[in-house]
Amino acid sequence: MGDNQEHNPLRGITVPAQPHIISAIKEAEDDLDKISALINKDPSIAASVLKIVNSAAFGIKAKIGSIERAVMMLGINRVKTLVNTQALQSSLGSAGSCEIMSFWDGANDIALTCYLLAVELNRQLLPDDAYSLGLFHNCGVILLAQKHEDYLKTLSESYDSHKESDLTTIEDIRYQSNHAVIGYYIGKGWKLPDAMTQVIRHHHDLEYIRNGPKKGAELTFEMLAVLKMAEHIVGLHKSLGHSDADHEWPQIQSSCLESLDLTDYEFEELTDVIHDKMALD
C-alpha cells in the first residue's frame, strides 16, 4: 500500500456505523426469545435472513417461515452472522444504480460459495466466517461508487486490465485509495475478526497472495484462498468487472490451491459440486 493511503486511507469517505441491532443481539447472549424479538423489529433484515436461510445452498428441506424457527434450526451463532451481514447491506444501500443494486446479488453468491467451500473442504475455516467474508469483502465498492461518479467505469477498466499488476492499481492512481483498503476499515469499524479484515485488505494484493501463507497466519491465508476460489467460481470478473476473463486467477491459482492441498483436478471437481449446489451455470 502506498504512503498516501496510509496517511489518509478513506479520503473523505465516511464508514457507516454498526447498527444498534448488532450490539443489542450481542448483549442478548444466548437468549433465543430476545434475539428473535430483536430481529423481528427490523422487517428488512428479518426478510433478508429468511431469504438466505431458505436458499438451496443451506440445504434445509422444510421452508423456514419465522425468525424464531430460523434461530432454533440454524443456531444462534449462524443467525448472528446472517444478521450482521444483512445489516451491512442495509447500512450501505445501493448507491441508486442498477449495477450497484445487482452488486448485492453477486455478493450473496460469493458469500454462499465461500460457505459451501468451507463445508466441502472441512478445514480450519468456519463456514459462517466464510459467509461473512464473502459478503463483506467488496463493501468498499459501494462507498467508492457513492463518492465518485466515474468509479464503476474505473472498476471495469481494472478488471479488464491485462497488466500483471494488482486490480486495485487504477483505483489507487485515480482516487489515492481503493476498495480493498476501504473495506478493511469498514471491517475494523464493525469489529470483524482481525484475520478477516486482513483478508479484505489483501484480497487483490497479488504479491502477497503469490508469496503464500506466513508462519502463524495459515488460517488467514486459508480464508483468502477460499475467497479467491469463490470469486473465480462465481465469475465475479464478469458480473462486477464486465470482463471476459479472470486475469487474476492464473497469477494466484497455484498459491491458493497449494495452501489448501488441492490439485487442479480436485479444484475442477469442487467447482462442479459448487455449481450444482448454487445452480450457477
TrEMBL record:
Residue ranges annotated for the HDOD domain, each copy included: 11-206
Family matches, as PROSITE patterns: HDOD
Residues spanning the signal sequence: none
Record InterPro entries: HDOD (IPR013976), RNase_Y/CdgJ (IPR052340)
Gene3D superfamilies: Hypothetical protein af1432
SUPFAM superfamilies: HD-domain/PDEase-like
Name of the molecule in the record: HDOD domain-containing protein
Native source organism of the sequence: Piscirickettsia litoralis
